[in-house]
Amino acid sequence: MSKRLFISWEPSNSRSATLAREFDAQCEFVHYLALKRPWLAPVKYVMQAFKSWSILRDARPDTVFVQNPPLFAPLAVWMYCGLKGIPMILDSHTGVFLEPKWRWLGFLHGFLVRRVRVSMVTNDYLGGMVEACGGRYFVFPDVPTEFPDAGTIDDKPGNLVLVINSFSYDEPLDQVIEAARALPDVSFAVTGDVRRCPQELLDQKPDNVRYTGFVSRSDYVSLLNSADAAVVLTNENYTMQRGAYEAMSLGVPIVTSDWPLLRDTFFKGTCHTDNTAASIVEALQTILSDKAGYKSAIAELKRERRAIWARKLEQFSNQYLDV
Q: Mean pLDDT across the chain, nearest whole number?
C-alpha cells in the first residue's frame, strides 16, 4: 500500500490539510518561532529543514507533497527525496510566482520545478510559468473543504460581514474601511494580525468595524459561519482566494474581486467588485437585501465545485499518483 506525505511549513493551512485528506496522505505542519518575521527566517528555516528530514526518515513515504512557498521547504525536502529516489509534488501557491519576496528566487524555483513530478497550481497562467521553466503542471483551482464541527458566535449582530484579511500588500483594506463607513448599520469583523495593520487604518476605523486580531482556527470558523457575507479581495490578478472557498464551504455568500479567475470560479452566490469602496458597498447591499437567495446560490455553487473537484482528482490520480 502506498504511503503519501504532505509537508507544509506553516502552523496550519486548510488547503494543505484538505489536499492531504483527499490524497490519503499524512499531513505534517512544520513551524517554529513567529510568523512573518523576516529576520527570524534563516534560523526557523534551518530548524524546519531538520524537522522535515526527521519526519521523512520516520514516515518512509513513497510520494511527498510540499506546499510552496516558502521555497526553502521544497528545497529541503528535495534534498532528501533526491537522495532516496522519492517522487515529489509541489503545491505551488500564487505568492511564489507573484510576490516580490519570492520572485527574485525564480532561478531556484525553476531548478525545483524541473526536478519534481508535477507542480499543482491554481490556474493556467501560473502553469505557463512552470512550463516556461521546463516543468509540468496540473490545475487545481482550489479545494472545497468541510467544517463538520463549525459553531457560531453568541453575540451576532443583525448584519455581520467578515472581511477575510491578512494585511497583505495586495488587499485593498482601505477601500473596505471606507465601504464600512458608508454602511453604519452593518457590523464588520476584520481578521488578521493587527500588528501588521497600517496605523492610519487603525486610527480611522468607524465604530462598526472590529479588528479581531489573530484568532484560533475554531474561532475563525465560528465567526465565518455566523457571517451574512464574506469579503475576500485582492488587487492581484491570477490570485485564488482560499478564504472565498472556505466561505463557500460554509454556505456564506461572497464578495470578491472582479478578476477573470475569480469570476470563473465563484460564479454563483457571489458579487464581484472592482475593489473600490462604492463597488464594495453596492455588492454588500445586493447580498444583504436577498440573504436567502444568495445562500441558496452559494450552496448550489458548492455542489458544482465539488463535482468539478472530483473529476480533477480522478484525472490527477490517474496521471501522477497511480503510476
A: 91
